[in-house]
């Protein structure tokens, strides 16, 4: 269903072992550090096929 997933998620790439992170300056990269505060992400389905991803730490978002 469309909507907001309240609990922060970690987006992990098993091909390389990186967690997606969004830094305060808006840089998006990956880190292997599971304790990095910038890997906590809020996901929200805005419409069918469109997901909004926002850092819970910085407030920066992907795609907006």
TrEMBL record:
Domain of life from the UniProt record: Eukaryota
GO molecular function: growth factor activity
Keywords associated with the record: Growth factor
Chain coiled-coil ranges: none
Protein's UniProt keywords contain Cell membrane: no
Matching Gene3D superfamilies: 6.20.90.30
Keyword Ubl conjugation: no
Assigned protein family: Belongs to the heparin-binding growth factors family.
Name of the molecule in the record: Acidic fibroblast growth factor
Organism name: Bubalus bubalis (Domestic water buffalo)
Gene responsible for this protein: fgf1
């Amino acid at each position: 269903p469309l909507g907001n997933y309240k609990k922060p998620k970690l987006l992990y790439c098993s091909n390389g072992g990186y967690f997606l992170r969004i830094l305060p300056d808006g840089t998006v990269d990956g880190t292997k550090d599971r304790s990095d505060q910038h890997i906590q992400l809020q996901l929200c389905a805005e419409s069918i096929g469109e997901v909004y991803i926002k850092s819970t730490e910085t407030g920066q978002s992907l795609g907006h």
